[in-house]
Specification:
InterPro entries: Aminotrans_3, Aminotrans_3_PPA_site, Dat, PyrdxlP-dep_Trfase, PyrdxlP-dep_Trfase_major, PyrdxlP-dep_Trfase_small. With 481 residues, the chain is an alpha/beta fold. It folds into two domains: 70-76 and 346-477, Aspartate Aminotransferase, domain 1 (Alpha-Beta Complex); 87-343, Type I PLP-dependent aspartate aminotransferase-like (Major domain) (Aspartate Aminotransferase, domain 2), CATH 3.40.640.10. Helix content is 38%, strand content 15%. α6 (109-121) runs parallel beside α12.
Length: 481
C-alpha cells in the first residue's frame, strides 16, 4: 500500500491573507465568544486565532475561508494528518456495526484488535512479556498510571526526572515536568549540544550528565535514596526538540537496570513513527520497563495506555481506573493508524524526509544569524531563534529570542502556515507535520517558513549591517549515534 495523499491546492500567501469571504462575520463572532466564555488557561487559541471548519491531510480551512498548512498536527497527535480515509473508514465501521461505544474495561473485538496491532509494533523483548493498562483519555493520565505502577511495584516513592521535561498537566505529571518542583522528584541534567548544562556539549557533555546521575544515586550523602523509577523522553518535545544521544540513553538503561530502578520512557509525542523509528527508543536499542503512549495511538481520538513488564504488575483490581478508558472509536482509529504507518513504512519515510528538511533548514540558518540551532529527529524538528548581538565573551551561545520566535509564528500564520513554539524560553519554532507529508508539501512548508523568518528578522533588526555575521558557534544538532 503506498502513500497516495497529494499536495493540497493552497492559495499563495498574499491571497491567503486577503481573500474576501462571506463568512468573516461568523469567524469573528466565534472567536469573540470564545474569548468571553473560555478560561484564561487557553493556549493555542491565543497564538492561532483561527476557526477550523474543514480539514484533510496537511490542510485546514478556517471559517473565514482561509487555508493553512498544519505543522502542529494536534501537537503530534495526527500521524496521518486530518481525516485520513483509513481512519474515517475504521470509525464508520464501528458506528455502523451497532457495537457499544462505552464499555469501561470490558473485552471487545475492537480492543483485542488494537492491543494485537500495538503489541506487534513494540520492541520484541517488551512485547513478549508485557501487560497493558488502558488509562484515562490523555497522555498525562498514562503518566500518572506509570508513576503509580512503579511506586506500587517497588514500594518506593522517589522519582528521577530531567530538566526541561514535559509529561503533562495533572499533579503527578507536573511533578515530573521541568517547570514544577516536588521533594519526591530529583532533577537530573538532560544532555544537549547547543546549550549544554556543563558548557562542553557533544559526547563529553553527555558523559558528564551520566556521571552526575550515577554519583547522585551511589553517594550515600547525596540525599537521594533509591527511587521508584526514572522517567525520560528520548526526544524532549516541549523542552525544545532536543534528541537524547543514543549512547546516553543506553547509559541510562544500564544505570537503572544495575540499581533495580524501573525505566519509564514517555513516548506520548515521539511514538508511532514520528522520529524515524516506530518508537523513539528503537534508535538506541533501549528496552524500557514502562512505555507511556498516547496522542497518535488513538488515530486523532483520545486514547492513552501504558505498556510494561509483567513483573511490575503488582496492582490490585481497581488500583488504577478511568471511566473513559474503553474508547472504542479511538481504539478502532488507532488500530487503523498503527497498521497504516507500519505497512507503508512511514517511520522510515519520516526519517528520510526529516533529514532532508533539516538540511534545508541548516542552509537557511547559514544566511540568518538569528537562527542559533536547527535540530530534531525524523519529523520532529525545532529551530531555536536567538539574539546574535547579545552573546557575551564568556558565553558564546547567544541568548534565546522569544519575541522573535513569536513574530516568526505570526508571520507563518499570515502566510498560511501553522507552527508551534516550545523550548525553555519559548524561542524554538517547532515543526510536527503529519507522516504523510509529501515532498511537494515539504517544499511549500519550507518556502513559507523561510519567507516568514526573513520578514520577522527584518522587523526586529531594521538596519542590520550587510556584513554582520554571528560570531558564536552555530550548530545543527541532530541525534548522536
Amino acid at each position: 500500500m503506498a502513500v497516495t495523499e497529494s499536495a493540497p491546492a493552497v492559495p499563495p500567501a498574499a491571497r491567503t491573507q486577503t481573500r474576501p469571504t462571506d463568512r468573516g462575520g461568523e469567524h469573528e463572532g466565534i472567536l469573540r465568544r470564545q474569548s468571553q466564555r473560555e478560561s484564561a488557561a487557553r493556549t493555542y487559541a491565543r497564538s492561532l486565532p483561527i476557526v477550523p471548519v474543514r480539514a484533510r491531510g496537511l490542510t485546514i480551512e478556517g471559517a473565514d475561508g482561509r487555508r493553512y498548512l498544519d505543522c502542529l498536527s494536534g501537537a503530534g497527535t495526527l500521524a496521518l494528518g486530518h481525516n485520513h480515509p483509513v481512519v474515517l473508514e475504521a470509525i464508520r465501521k464501528v458506528l455502523d456495526s451497532g457495537a457499544p461505544l462505552h464499555v469501561l474495561d470490558l473485552a471487545t473485538p475492537v480492543k483485542d484488535a488494537f492491543t494485537s496491532e500495538l503489541f506487534a509494533t513494540l520492541p520484541g523483548e517488551l512485547a513478549d512479556d508485557a501487560r497493558i493498562q488502558f488509562c484515562g483519555p490523555a497522555g498525562t493520565d498514562a503518566v500518572e498510571a506509570a508513576l503509580k505502577l512503579v511506586r506500587t511495584a517497588t514500594g518506593r516513592s522517589g522519582l528521577l526526572a530531567f530538566t526541561g521535561a514535559y509529561h503533562g498537566m495533572t499533579a503527578g505529571a507536573l511533578e515530573a515536568s521541568g517547570g514544577a518542583a516536588d521533594v519526591r522528584v530529583t532533577r537530573l541534567p538532560y544532555p544537549q549540544q547547543y546549550r549544554c548544562p556543563f558548557g562542553v556539549g557533544g559526547e563529553r557533555g553527555a558523559e558528564l550528565a551520566a556521571r552526575w546521575t550515577e554519583n547522585l544515586l551511589d553517594d550515600p550523602k547525596s540525599g537521594v535514596t533509591t527511587p521508584a523509577g526514572m522517567i525520560v523522553e528520548a526526544v524532549q518535545g516541549e523542552g525544545g526538540v532536543i534528541p537524547a544521544p543514543d549512547d546516553w540513553m543506553r547509559r541510562m538503561r544500564r544505570i537503572t537496570a544495575d540499581r533495580s530502578v524501573p525505566l519509564i520512557v514517555d513516548e506520548v509525542q515521539t511514538g508511532v513513527g514520528r522520529t524515524g523509528a516506530f518508537w523513539a527508543v528503537e534508535h538506541s536499542g533501549v528496552v524500557p520497563d514502562v512505555m507511556v503512549l498516547s496522542k497518535a495511538i488513538g488515530g486523532s481520538l483520545p486514547l492513552a495506555v501504558i505498556v510494561y513488564r509483567s513483573e511490575l504488575d503488582a496492582w490490585e483490581p481497581g488500583a488504577h481506573a478511568g471511566t473513559f478508558r474503553g474508547n472504542q472509536l479511538a481504539m478502532a482509529a488507532g488500530t487503523a493508524t498503527l497498521a497504516y504507518v507500519r505497512e507503508n513504512k512511514l517511520a522510515e519515510r519520516a526519517g528520510t524526509l526529516g533529514a532532508r528538511i533539516l538540511g534545508r533548514l541548516q542552509g537557511l540558518a547559514a544566511a540568518h544569524p538569528c537562527v542559533g540551532d536547527v535540530r530534531g529527529r525524523g519529523l520532529m524538528i525545532g529551530v531555536e531563534l536567538v539574539d546574535p548581538d547579545a552573546a557575551g565573551p564568556d558565553d558564546p551561545v547567544p541568548p534565546p529570542a522569544p519575541a522573535l520566535a513569536l513574530a516568526v509564528q505570526q508571520e507563518c500564520l499570515a502566510r498560511g502556515l501553522i507552527v508551534e513554539l516550545g523550548g525553555r524560553h519559548s524561542a524554538v519554532v517547532r515543526l510536527l507535520p503529519p507522516l504523510t507529508l509529501t515532498d511537494e508539501q515539504a517544499n511549500a512548508v519550507l518556502d513559507r517558513f523561510a519567507d516568514a523568518l526573513a520578514a520577522a528578522e527584518r522587523a526586529h533588526t531594521p538596519h542590520p549591517p550587510a556584513s554582520r555575521r554571528a560570531t558564536a558557534p552555530r550548530n545543527a544538532s541532530g541525534p548522536s549515534h
